Amino acid sequence: MERREQPVVPVARLAGVRREQFLRDIYPRRKPVVLKGMELGTCTTKWTVDYLSQAEGSKEVKIHVSAVPQMDFLSKNFVYRTLPFDVFVQRAAEVKHKEYFLSEEEKYYLRSVGEDARKDIADIRKQFPVLAEDVQIPEYFEKEQFFSSVFRISSAGLQLWTHYDVMDNFLIQVTGKKRVVLYSPRDAPYLYLSGTKSKVLDVDNPDLEKYPLFVKAKRYQCFLEAGDVLFIPALWFHNVISEEFGVALNVFWKHLPAESYDKSDTYGNKDPTAASRAIQILDRALKTLEELPEEYRDFYARRMVLRIQEKAYRNDYG
Ligand SMILES: O=C(O)CCC(=O)C(=O)O
């Protein structure tokens, strides 16, 4: 199939945005924005590889390791390994490794988790208290809305699978450069979803035989430099390439009332409970349609889609 480029929409970049302006003019639009010139504390100047290694020493971290730069959650082309934090940082910062798990040029990725990843939520103040002292998190939401603060440390060249999260978040790029490609929740029909992940990992060279509708998805894109903060509204898909070794801090907060979220969600990526229940009910409805012959099943399925469009779609989606 002939290759068609997706048009690229640059994500707005705004400098020196204060809390009031963010809440009044930016947040309600529910679109990604790069915030420049934010006050982030001493982390932006202090966090060299040596400083990071010394600050938190040899505490163990569980990391993703892959032989190829494109990490894919769906095909699980990576392995989980445990390393002392200082060794991990040194390895993630180098391109070729003397000691390795899979291959000399393997890539590393840390997505920090809570003490017990199944029960506890990542909070750098608890897991990385020394480094947490260096960061000033932009307080653009109420304290009670805070959900997690997650370290994301990656090797140069690493590409993270396309996915959405169910909470709003700031991606604070403390060191290193990154390219982020985003897609609106509205374009979900073109992204070939499997749960919260898209099957389209290679957003630059998508397999259009397999994913022909992908060309219809509108591509938003931005480049982050050290000190930039990207606001990623909940449900926006994102695919991230680290152009250099880099350290980011990802802060999630609750946009919906607290009780809307799944209590067992430690990552901020489980669908709100009402959405999960609605999907279960839909699956039951589809099972019920199987009682009909194909001609009728098709007809009533189309009527159901029309009903969903009429009753649940918004018509002001810009
Ligand atoms: O920067 C990264 O490594 C991933 C960021 C991400 O997935 C997020 O902001 O939710």
Automatic annotation (TrEMBL):
It is an enzyme of class 1 (oxidoreductase). Gene3D superfamilies: 6.10.140.1470, Cupin (2.60.120.650). InterPro entries: Cupin_8, JmjC_dom. This is tRNA wybutosine-synthesizing protein 5. The keyword Transit peptide does not apply. SUPFAM superfamilies: Clavaminate synthase-like (SSF51197). GO terms for biological process: wybutosine biosynthetic process. Homodimer. The keyword Lipid biosynthesis does not apply. tRNA hydroxylase that acts as a component of the wybutosine biosynthesis pathway. Wybutosine is a hyper modified guanosine with a tricyclic base found at the 3'-position adjacent to the anticodon of eukaryotic phenylalanine tRNA. Catalyzes the hydroxylation of 7-(a-amino-a-carboxypropyl)wyosine (yW-72) into undermodified hydroxywybutosine (OHyW*). OHyW* being further transformed into hydroxywybutosine (OHyW) by LCMT2/TYW4. OHyW is a derivative of wybutosine found in higher eukaryotes. It holds the Pfam family Cupin_8. Residues 126-270 form the JmjC domain. One of its GO terms (molecular function) is iron ion binding. It catalyses: 7-[(3S)-3-amino-3-carboxypropyl]wyosine(37) in tRNA(Phe) + 2-oxoglutarate + O2 = 7-(2-hydroxy-3-amino-3-carboxypropyl)wyosine(37) in tRNA(Phe) + succinate + CO2. Keywords: Dioxygenase, Iron, Metal-binding, Oxidoreductase, tRNA processing. Belongs to the TYW5 family. Pathway: tRNA modification; wybutosine-tRNA(Phe) biosynthesis. Its EC number is 1.14.11.42. It comes from Aquila chrysaetos chrysaetos. Its cofactor is Fe(2+).
